[in-house]
Amino acid sequence: MSESTSRRRSGGRAARQAARAAAVIDSVPFLTRTLAPFEVLGEEGLSLIEKNADTLLEEVGIVVHYDYALKLFKEAGASVDEEVVRFPRGMLRQIVQATAPARYMQHARNSERSVQIGGNHTVFAPNYGSPFVRDLDGGRRYATIDDFVNIVKMTYMTPYLHHSGGTVCEPVDLPVNKRHFDMVYAHLKYSDKPFMGSVTSPERAQDTVDMAKIVFGANALESKTVITSLINASSPLAWDETMLGAARVYAENNQAGIFTPFILSGAMAPVTVAGTATQTLAEALVGMAFAQLVRPGAPVIFGSFASSMSMHTGAPTFGTPEPSLVLYTVAALARRLGVPFRSGGGLCGSKIADAQAAYESASTMHATITGGVNFVLHAAGWLEGGLTFGYEKFILDVDQAGAAHTFVKGVDLSENGQAMDAIRETGPGNHFLGSAHTLANFEEAFYRPTTTDNNSYEQWLEEGEEDSRSRANRLWKRQLESYELPPLDDALDAALLDFMGRRKSSFPDSNV
Q1: I want to staple 164 with a disulfide (CB 3.0 to 4.6 A). Which of 156, 195, 269, 413 is the partner?
Q2: Enclosing H/E stretch for 68
Q3: Helix (H) or strand (E) holding 140
Q4: In degrees to the nearest 10, what's the CA dihedral of 96, 98, 100, 102?
Q5: Pairing between strand 256-264 and 300-303?
Q6: Tens digits of per-residue pLDDT, 200-224?
């Protein structure tokens, strides 16, 4: 390659792309969809799955490894045989529908970034739970608290992710039993978007609540939901004390839980779409009803995470048709139940941000948007079946999240959208480039991606032959370079650090 083609120009397309990426964009606190959700089943099919879920709950039952939950369920009318709980038909549905809110506001410490969860709204949150990170410079490596802070900062910087998320990666350089302090602090310090709390023990959930009280006020949580946290079932057909104990803490404090069966179909649920949807509904109902028994009116989200698997190797697979059908089905079940729904995201099994990652993530995200998901975890950064957060993948995914903001608006049928004057003005055989309508709509006519290249081959050569990962690598670095800390009162910051210091010193480090 010649020197003239290998050097990268300081101006041209790269400069325009950087300017767009660094531009100050009005905050978009959440999506409001105008398109009706896509339905794959009618009344008969959905009623059949609900009937089957009730049969499962009544005849097979759910194992609950938590004495407090066993007590609540028994008092509510369930049959408890040691740790197996069986529920009369319709009991859990009645409990949830009686008191669980159809939607709720999660308040951010910057009120302009508070999000509406439920109804026709969609909230995007980043990757969750990965022990590894990957970028073009360092390759795949264990995640650290520095990576965690980087991801929080990048999430804060984009208008297309509305939520700071939770365990955006697992900082393995910190003790397991104390890292939640630093993670929650990172969300509160380096972002002013809503966040998720720790769920790895009831005590860590309480620490999250106590830190939120420092920032939002000691009594504020009684009237405001400021934390939404992920509570996973132990599929198949079981709930454990760790998750339900954390859910209890959040519910008692009026904070939200996402009750999600984490299912690999064929291993933790039947291989069929209907069977997986049935089990998902049954397991989620148990978790959501538990929260209502703890505190009627506590916000809950019906969660679904269903992946297919390779029947040859047992490895999880993503972007395949069956999980999308599960998503569409369970989303409809959540709407019938009258609670917000969580699923979807930019899921893939690829190890790097390549074509496989793009196809699989796009397939999952398409179902997410058209299915009407309310809370989208893993909207950006997911690689390797969730084992790895990808810096470049994050940027590429955020670009697609931006496109979704335009898609959900649907078709503009205003006078400007109809464009009849433009058609009359231009007439047959002429082009629209110079029409008054085109000039008036020039800046916002189409969504403009920040990571794609649509120039000529010759211009692409001259600007360095970058592929999408190289462009994304440059963009995430520029994003971190331009990061500015959102305001946080010095006294609140000092109180958080003091609380963390006292709590950390009160018990020894541990890796469990």
Answers
A1: 195
A2: helix 67-76
A3: strand 139-142
A4: 110
A5: parallel
A6: 999 999 999 999 999 999 999 999 9
